[in-house]
Structures are given as structure tokens and as C-alpha cells.
Design goal:
The protein is α/β, with parallel strands linked by helices. It has a single domain, classed as Collagenase (Catalytic Domain). Helices cover about 45% and strands about 15% of the residues. Strands 1-2-4-3 form a four-stranded mixed sheet, sandwiched between helices. The radius of gyration is 15 Å and the shape is globular. The N and C termini lie far apart (about 40 Å).
Length: about 160
């Protein structure tokens, strides 16, 4: 039985040539590193710039695509997890074209950029943020630690 309920969806139109199982292992690594209780659920979709631009406009009032959006369910008004039910952590949506572009800009493989963005999205689901310098420092440190456990080193600006 899997440790977590991780659902991975890769939109055909995204052009992403990654195995859902491999992406699921990235999510699992982040959840284990953050000591998330077994059985917790995460849904992750790899999609297009167009979908991320639409979601970004609707949910953040921002124009244009972004690399990742996280939609945590824990701590949201009115969200109650019934006793004994698995904890629904939330949803993550990632733009594959942004992953490819950012990897090229940073000079590392797209897989490493995807790992960074998956971990980043998971940390957002778990309450991490980077609006303040102190939050950013802590979140970037956790990202580096988790990626390091996976043998992935990326430069975080």
C-alpha cells in the first residue's frame, strides 16, 4: 500500500515526456521530508502555459502564466477533515513549458527544474510561503535540503 494518495495527471497537450510514477516519487519525497502523516492526499497536474495563465488570472488576479500554482485545502475556511479520513493537502498545477524554459535559463536539466517546482508546490500546500525575506530564506533552505536528498542540486535565485 502506498504511503500517500498521490494522483498525477499529465495533460497530453503539455508535451511533457515524464512518467507520472516518477513525478509521484518527487511528491512523496517532499511529504516524507516534511513528516506528513501517511495517507495524506495530493493531486498534481502538469499542463500548459495557457491553463496556468487562466488559473493565475482567476485565482491570483495575475496576468500571464506562472510555473506552479498550489491550492492548499488545509487551513481554508470551512474545510474540515472528518476523523479517520485521509488529510487532503490540496492540488498543484505546473506549466511544462515554464519548466523547460526555466531549466534552459538556469542551465540544468528539465527534470531538475521539475523536481524543484514539485517540491516548491508541495511546500506551499504545507503552509510555506516566500512573500517575506525570512519566509523565503526558510522555504529555499527546505527546497535545497529535500532536493539534496534526491541528489539534485539547482541554483536558487
Amino acid at each position: 500500500m502506498p504511503l500517500y494518495d498521490i494522483q498525477i495527471e499529465i495533460a497530453r497537450e503539455s508535451g511533457a515526456a515524464v512518467a507520472p510514477e516518477q513525478v509521484g516519487l518527487l511528491v512523496e519525497a517532499a511529504l516524507v521530508a516534511e513528516s506528513v502523516q501517511p495517507g495524506a492526499a495530493v493531486w498534481l497536474r502538469i499542463s500548459t502555459d495557457e491553463e496556468l495563465a487562466e488559473l493565475n488570472a482567476v485565482h491570483r488576479g495575475q496576468e500571464g502564466p506562472t510555473d506552479v500554482l498550489s491550492f492548499p485545502t488545509q487551513g481554508q475556511d470551512g474545510w474540515i477533515t472528518p476523523p479517520g479520513a485521509p488529510v487532503e493537502l490540496g492540488d498543484i498545477v505546473i506549466s511544462w513549458p515554464r519548466i523547460v524554459a526555466q531549466a534552459a535559463e538556469q542551465g540544468h536539466p528539465a527534470w531538475h527544474e521539475l523536481a524543484l517546482i514539485v517540491v516548491h508546490g508541495c511546500l506551499h500546500l504545507l503552509g510555506h510561503d516566500h512573500m517575506l525575506a525570512s519566509e523565503r530564506s526558510l522555504m529555499w533552505e527546505r527546497q535545497e535540503q529535500i532536493l539534496g536528498q534526491l541528489g539534485i542540486v539547482v541554483r536558487l535565485d
